[in-house]
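FW: tagging you since you asked about this chain on Friday. Here's the raw sequence from the shared folder, copied in full. Didn't touch anything.
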Amino acid sequence: MTEMSDLDMEEVLQIDIVSDVVCPWCIVGFKQLEKAIEQTGVSAAIKWHPFELNPDMPSEGENLREHIMRKYGSSAEQSQEARDRLTDIGSGLGIDFRFTEDMRMVNTFKAHQLIHWAAQEGLEHQMKMALFEAYFRDRKDLNDNAVLADIAENTGLDRASALNVLEDGRYADAVRQEEMFWTQNGIQGVPAVVFERRHLITGAQGVDNYVSIITQLVEGNAA
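HL: got it, structure written out here
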């Protein structure tokens, strides 16, 4: 692998990340990518894009364990093993996964609308991180307008404006169109990371793999 000193530190990589805020591997993958960016020393411009793992999820949601077992055909033991593995991986990345028996899978369409609005206010990334934390650490209902408005306020946005955005659905069409763009371009699962708008990498790849990918891209761009 090329040493850091050989990398072009002026290079700014465009990184588009398609993900959902209730996807544990999405936050794992991002934190791995974040560490790789730090290790290589390159600058990166990250843009988040919406994807719904469960677009047909009803407003009341569904028990998370029951949902996973039904959707993927896993057993209770396999579900627990997956939770234990995620909790262990997350602890090494600064992610506080707090899974409980009453945790629920929820509809995330409103959350994506809130992220879309936050992007226009210059707080897209902060909102995305806050939503991940609210769901996986605090087990908040991300389909609840009041909960989302509180998260927006804690992120530095106006709470009343956030409620208005959620209630009138002004960004619903924009989010739907963006979701369609990515699915029509072959994105069927997340996380999906697109480097330089050309190189698609799916799944949480691990820090070392992301370092290798970034290094190769920077070297290729500098050649």
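FW: The chain is about 50% helix and 15% strand.
HL: agreed, and Residues 24-40 form the longest helix (17 residues).
FW: great, closing this out.
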